[in-house]
Each structure stands twice: as structure tokens, then as C-alpha cells.
Amino acid sequence: MLNQHPELEDKPWLLPKVWVGRWIKFIRLSKGANKNLAIEGMKISHRRTELLKKYKIL
Question: Cα 53 to chain center, whole Å?
Fold first, then answer.
């Protein structure tokens, strides 16, 4: 996250702002022509979460 938003290193209190910005970007993608891209991203994140649970990391 710091690679894309270096300002967070000095101002970690901006993290909620960055989260909201990412959510807005995701919503725009899911409504636009890239709807399938957003759906695929959600599927991948779900599979990753399941793997983390399987290996008892989460």
C-alpha cells in the first residue's frame, strides 16, 4: 500500500481516506464496462481468503 500511497508513511491517519478511494474505484469498475473484471477480482480475493483460512493464517 505504501508503494502506491507514499504519503501514508508520514500521515498514517489518511488510511481511511485511501480505503474509501479504493472502494469508489472498485464501484466504478463494477458498474462500467469492466464489470467482469471486478467480479473476477472478488472471486480471486475469496479464494485467497479461503486458502489463508485453510492454512490457519487467518
Answer: 18
Q: What angle do CA 24, 52, 48 make, to 5 degrees?
A: 45
Domain coordinates in residue numbering, the chain: 7-54
Residue carrying C-alpha cell 493464517? 57
Under 8 Å between Cβ of 17 and 25: no
- Tens-digit pLDDT profile for residues 3-13: 888 888 898 89
Number of residues assigned to the chain: 58
pLDDT above 70 covers a percentage of the chain that reads: 93
